[in-house]
Specification:
The chain is an alpha/beta fold. The chain has a single domain, classed as NAD(P)-binding Rossmann-like Domain (Rossmann fold). Helices cover 36% and strands 20% of the residues.
């Protein structure tokens, strides 16, 4: 089976590609570094020739409201148009748990638009909404740092290891299109401020985490239902990653 991974050189795309190649599939990584530009459409027709599945996991070049919306709008429209011409039978898109519940966050609005375009395309699809990755907690802490203090909301979340996301996406890619949304989360519900504090302590980082609900999440207001799975009646399929945060934390400390 030929599987094209858009964003195939990124954190998730690279791991998905490795898993699929080890299973005997023909995998093609599509990114700007490989001559494919989804925003302009350059290279899409060629790379999708003979493709059975597209795994859609690109990284947006900006988190600013306008650019991120334009990126996901243009890239997804170009992608589904090229897929239709190529006869692609399954579009797997990686999205975010809580996308529909956080319209005040520009990135979430852009991901919601991406999902809308995929649903309306007529191409069989599966949308995988994942929770925050363990690997991005340090970036959240860095973005919330003032001097030696890290101010983060003590909001409930259910973060997941990128390796578990990659395994799930690879498994879904070789299955039948569900024309539905799957929620993918880690095994434990944890509070963002606590997770960040544990990470800093484990890595001998002297910064102090101060829980402060007013800071929200990427500028948006959040509750304990915003970033956790199980709060959307339209989502009936849920998967759980096997790696706990403590196990992941121990693994990075050992290395």
């Amino acid at each position: 089976m030929k599987i094209v991974i858009v964003g195939g050189t990124g954190l998730i795309g690279r791991r998905v590609g490795q898993i699929l190649q080890e299973s005997g599939h023909e995998v093609v990584a599509a990114s700007r570094s490989t001559g494919v530009n989804v925003v302009t459409g350059e290279g899409l027709d060629d790379v999708l020739q003979g493709a059975h599945v597209v795994v859609d996991v690109p990284n947006a070049p900006s988190f600013e409201d306008g650019p991120v919306m334009e990126f996901f709008r243009a890239s997804t429209q170009n992608l589904v148009a090229a897929e239709e011409k190529a006869g692609v039978g399954h579009h797997v898109v990686l999205s975010i748990v809580g996308t529909d519940r956080l319209p005040g966050i520009g990135y979430m609005r852009a991901k919601a638009r991406q999902e809308e375009i995929v649903r309306a395309s007529g191409i069989p699809y599966t949308i995988v909404r994942a929770t925050q990755f363990f690997e991005f907690i340090s970036a959240l802490a860095d973005g919330a740092t003032e001097g030696d203090v890290v101010r983060l909301a003590p909001v409930l979340m259910q973060p997941i290891a990128a390796a578990d996301v990659s395994k799930a996406v690879a498994h879904i890619a070789v299955g039948d299109a569900l024309n539905d949304v799957i929620e993918l989360a880690g095994p434990d519900a944890l509070r963002l401020a606590d997770v960040a504090a544990d990470l800093l302590q484990a890595t001998s980082d002297s910064r102090k985490v101060v829980p402060e609900i007013s800071v929200g999440y990427f500028g948006g207001t959040v509750t304990d239902e915003s970033l956790t799975p199980g709060h959307d009646d339209r989502v009936t399929r849920q998967l759980r990653g096997a790696t706990s945060f403590s196990a992941w934390l121990n693994s990075i400390v050992r290395h």
